Amino acid sequence: MCCKKLTLVKFLFSFLFLIAATAATFAQDAAEGETLFKNNCAACHASTDEVLVGPGLKGISERRPIEWIVKWVHNPQAVIASGDKYANDLYNKFNKAAMTPYPNFSEAQIKGIIAYIDASNAAPAAPAAGAAPAAGAAAPAAAASSGGMMEVLLVGLLIIMVLVLIALLAIVNSLSKLAKADQEEGKPFFERVAENAKSLAANSAVKTGVIVLVLLLGGKATIDAAYGVGIHQGYAPEQPIKFSHKLHAGQYQINCNYCHTGVYEGKGANVPSANICMNCHNAIKRESPEIQKIYKALEKDEPIQWVRVHNLPDLAYFNHSQHTNVGGLECKNCHGEIEKMEVVEQRSSLTMGWCIDCHRQTDVNAKGNAYYDKLVEVHNKDSKTPLKVQNIGGLECSKCHY
What we know:
The chain has about 400 residues and is mostly helical. Helix content is about 55%, strand content about 0%. The chain has helices at about 1-40, 60-65, 65-75, 75-80, 85-95, 105-120, 150-180, 190-200, 205-230, 245-250, 255-260, 275-280, 290-300, 320-325, 330-335, 350-360, 375-380, 395-400. The longest helix is centred in the N-terminal third of the chain and has 40 residues, at about 1-40.
């Protein structure tokens, strides 16, 4: 009977670790998928059913088979050209806006993104993305970790392990009853449970399981903390004047360049001066308490102390005109849908990996630019894919760090 008990214990622990390994694999896939989604997809798609530039991705794994999704992510135009009805209906519904292809994504990476979408919709709803934090508050807790879903899944795994251990104790107790029925008539129930618990605690498999779990949780927490250093995704500080981009850039469709005068011409986009505000507000809504703050700043000849939202470290060189003018990128590629933000927040991670991924996937805007003619000609001799930013030095360290 003892041999049978030992065999059953080993079987149950093998089953337990199989569950743990499966859950850990799913958690890792979802964590990697979250990073890929936020770095590449979040500018145009929400993980919920909210419609942004493109459709919300909630339930995408139920709407389309994984084979179709992989083909679509790799080359959406090819799927449309094949006559696929779903693809063409989607293309026409969103005004024939071309989705950026991601041919370098593996099937496992795409499945990781889907795992993150499914997991995020299964979790409790998070606060609204546009909600501003309290004055002086740091970036939201979600911004401190690039793998927020990982913690939820690991907690779930811990609960499963505890439940399995409880079930295991009950089984061991039942086996002990069968083996020692004649000797245990007078023993209290809790005393028998305590004895079984002691023998279970002395089991090397249990000790190994506890150590592995502690290392897994501690390692994940350490990695998340390291990756979160310097990342302020979701940061939405309170400004000295309550300025609504949703009203100005959205409802009134004022071009970004009107206020941020360097966005197409200079290295920086420039923070607008009070004089630019007065081009309109010398006659519009002068009585507003917020507009009166502009008048007071002008009377005192002092600049408005706007709080910077997007702040790259000094070691990184970034030129706005190179991206917006030469590259032809829209502001929302990096900043998200500013025209829908009441309070501006940092939507993208702005990490080095995020920039490099963009350089790997973005086609060079060479049309009508004779500077690139020879480069395109040489590139096309050896490759059938379009000329990417990475092909013209976009991955060289010295491009951004010098």
